Every structure is written in structure tokens, then in C-alpha cells.
């Protein structure tokens, strides 16, 4: 479980950090990937709130 920061009822005011490790391997240089987060949110129209997508690159 990840605990989100931010005030209750303040749209877009939360934040989360997910620490991760990556081996020091040159094979990862130039690797691109996409990430997106979601939370179960009973106040959202569909019951789920999504973050914007993020494209990121290593290197």
C-alpha cells in the first residue's frame, strides 16, 4: 500500500514517491518507458482517478 500525501478534498494537491532501484547497466541507457498512476476514488465519476501519463527515458 502506498500512502498519498496532500489535503483531503483538494483536487490535484496530492503527491506520491515510489522509490525504485535500477542496476548500473549500460544496456538501460536510451531505454524509454511510460508510467501512469491511479487511485480508487469514490468521489470520481468512475470510482477511479488517473494521473497524466508520463514518458521518461534513462540516460
Structure keywords:
single chain; 59 residues; mainly beta; two-stranded antiparallel ribbon; two-stranded antiparallel sheet
Could you explain how this protein is built, in words?
By secondary structure, this protein is mainly β. 0% of the residues lie in helices and 24% in strands. It has no helices and four strands. The chain has strands at residues 32-35, 38-40, 48-50, 54-57. It has a two-stranded antiparallel ribbon with strand order 1-4. β2 (38-40) and β3 (48-50) form a beta hairpin. The protein is elongated. The two termini are 30 Å apart. The model has no long low-confidence stretch (mean pLDDT 82).
Radius of gyration, taken over Cα atoms and rounded to an integer in Å? 15 Å
Distance between the termini: 30 Å
Number of strands: 4
* Secondary structure: helix percent: under 10%
Given as residue ranges, the uncertain stretches (5+ residues, pLDDT < 50) are: none
Secondary structure tally, helices: 0
Strand content: 15-25%
Sequence of secondary-structure elements: EEEE
Helices and strands: which structural class?
mainly beta
How would a crystallographer describe the biggest sheet?
Answer: 2 strands, antiparallel
Approximate shape: elongated
The overall average pLDDT, rounded, is 82
* Biggest sheet, spatial arrangement of strands: 1-4
Please give the structural blueprint.
Elements: E1 32-35, E2 38-40, E3 48-50, E4 54-57
Summarize the structure in short.
This protein is mainly beta and 59 residues long. Helix content is 0%, strand content 24%. A two-stranded antiparallel ribbon has the order 1-4. It has a two-stranded antiparallel ribbon with strand order 2-3.
